[in-house]
Design goal:
globular, eight-stranded parallel beta sheet, alpha/beta, five-stranded antiparallel beta sheet, 18 strands
């Protein structure tokens, strides 16, 4: 028997905390648990239901914490395990659930297991936790296969004794062997460790990559296919059927708790495959990368929305919606360009951006996202209207893509710049006065602080607060009722329950507002001419 609270995740708004850049409590330039604890009331007042915290485990930070050296502790720069326990309790007191990141595809090369593997001989149990192979050629000096790493270069690095180990990302992130029962048992224990501390769920990093073809065959594919393998059936390391047995065992663990825990998958998969991860004995939800990456065009968005809702309904799962995250260019910047979709996975090209246009479109997109049925994700700072920082000095870039690409692809640091909270000069309240954030903040972010947004009734912050308040209080925004209404070309018009309507004009001309009572919320002020301007969204009730 389940109760209503067990289904909170079906309609939750979850706020992504990239902890290194959220709030710095001790002044060392790095965000931490102390800073997060101090800002929990802000998140509760914003109106979100849960927070998702990017990896906070001990890590050399070769990939921003996605290279974990100890899954049962906290990175010293972020705080202590006791502080984490206190934060979880305080979040719960404020009505916020807590979701952590788990990184099961690979560990850090500094993890005790990998250090043991490197010290052990070929064929040893220690090496069998990872994917070590002999090289090709008479002396084994050639790569075991042609697989490429997501951050550039081959997916293999040679150990001192001549064997090679697999890493689908950076060399500092060796892939685990999920055919090894010891690996499965270890991660089941890790899940229980954090669930027992009160964590409400996990976001699963690279959920589509844990299972590999044991033969490790050549791919013979170009580099652009390295992240998803969407152009090949039976891919040897992405989206393999063997992954589902792992997730069924994880779901059984989550369901064993009185307050059932939840999972959300980061799974880049081929069309129609995402539902396989969300069957009722596997994971609960998954990120909707199709929506995030879609151009801000009515026809494309309608197609993505229809496909997302319809495909997942086959397994009874809700869709999720997201505009930005820690891996993609912030959507204010994307929407200010001629092409508004995501162009490359780790982006190496910058194009002219009309920031005012991007901001108008971002406001409209926020109302679209928050009006759709299902759950939504808000990436820290998007509620402030932050843009991508594309002119960071090369000397401060830390994304592994920068080094692995031979300094040709700047990577993801531009969307990870620390958040501005108060004041007119850096660090804008991110840390104490005089502290220096780990990435520099633009001087004009003084207009984007939470303090400035609080004082401006027309700010992006006030728009998000209003939308999130209505999402909780308006009966029409509860449940999963949804139907399209006829509307002019270049627009989206749909009805939720109780006659609540969302209209979005993505064309270049004003269009008539639908017949309805007065607007509940608009992405910008409307004139009295009965028209919806371009790049504008509105929520209203039908007559």
């Amino acid at each position: 028997m389940t109760n209503a609270s067990d289904s909170w995740w079906r309609s939750a708004v979850i706020y992504q905390v990239y902890i290194r850049s959220f709030a710095d409590g001790d002044g060392d330039g790095t965000g931490d648990i102390a800073g997060l604890r101090a800002r929990l009331p802000y998140l509760a007042q914003l109106g979100v239901d849960a927070i998702w915290i990017n990896p906070w485990y001990p890590s050399p930070l070769a990939d921003g914490g996605y290279d974990v050296s100890d899954y049962r502790d906290i990175h010293p720069a972020y705080g202590t395990l006791d502080e984490a326990k206190q934060m979880i309790a305080e979040a719960h007191e404020l009505g916020l659930r807590v979701i952590l990141d788990i990184v099961p595809n690979h560990t850090s090369d500094q993890h005790a297991w990998f250090q043991q593997a490197i010290a052990a001989p070929p064929g040893s149990p220690e090496r069998d936790r990872y994917l070590f192979r002999e090289g090709r050629g008479e002396d084994g000096s050639l790569l075991p296969n042609d697989w490429l790493a997501a951050f550039g270069g081959p997916a293999w690095t040679r150990a001192d004794d001549g064997q090679w180990y697999l890493h689908l990302f950076a060399p500092e992130q060796p892939d685990l062997n999920w055919d090894n029962p010891e690996v499965r048992a270890e991660f089941e224990s890790i899940l229980r460790f954090w669930f027992d501390l009160g964590v409400d769920g996990f976001r699963i990093d690279v959920a589509h990559g844990m299972a590999k073809d044991p033969a490790l065959p050549d791919l013979g594919l170009p580099e652009f296919s390295v992240l998803t393998g969407e152009d090949q059936d039976n891919h040897p390391h992405w989206d393999r059927d063997g992954i589902h047995d792992i997730f069924r065992s994880w779901r059984a663990i989550a369901d064993s708790y009185l307050d059932r825990r939840v999972f959300v998958a980061e799974a880049h998969v081929r069309p129609g495959r995402l539902a396989h991860y969300l069957r009722d004995d596997e994971l609960h939800t998954a990120f909707n990368f199709d929506f995030l990456k879609s151009p801000l065009e009515a026809d494309r968005l309608r197609e993505v929305i229809d496909r997302s809702i319809t495909d997942l309904a086959t397994v009874g799962a809700p869709a999720t919606w997201v505009l930005s995250n820690h891996d993609e260019t912030r959507h204010v910047t994307r929407y200010g360009r001629a092409y508004t979709g995501v162009t490359t996975p780790l982006r190496g090209q910058h194009h002219p951006c009309d920031r005012a246009l991007g901001t108008r479109r971002a406001r409209a997109a926020a109302l679209l996202m928050l009006a759709l049925p299902g759950s939504a994700y808000v990436y820290q700072g998007e509620e402030l209207g932050l843009y991508e920082v594309e002119d960071l000095p090369e000397s401060v870039l830390q994304d592994p893509t920068w080094e692995r690409s031979g300094h040709t692809v700047r990577g993801r640091d531009g969307c990870r710049v620390p958040i501005p909270w108060t004041g007119d000069t850096p660090p804008f309240g991110f840390g104490p006065p005089g502290s220096t954030p780990w990435l520099p903040q633009p001087a004009d972010w003084k207009s984007y602080t939470a303090e400035a947004g609080q004082a401006d009734p027309t700010s992006m912050l006030q728009l998000y607060r209003s939308a999130l308040r209505l999402r909780r209080t308006e009966p029409g925004l509860s449940g999963e009722e949804f139907r399209w209404l006829d509307s002019p070309e270049g627009t989206l018009l749909f009805e939720r329950g109780h006659g609540l309507v969302c209209a979005v004009n993505l064309s270049d001309q004003p269009v008539p507002l639908p017949d309805a009572c007065g607007p509940l919320l608009t992405s910008r002020l409307l004139d009295d001419d009965g028209l919806l301007p371009p790049d504008t969204a509105v929520w209203l009730h039908r007559d």
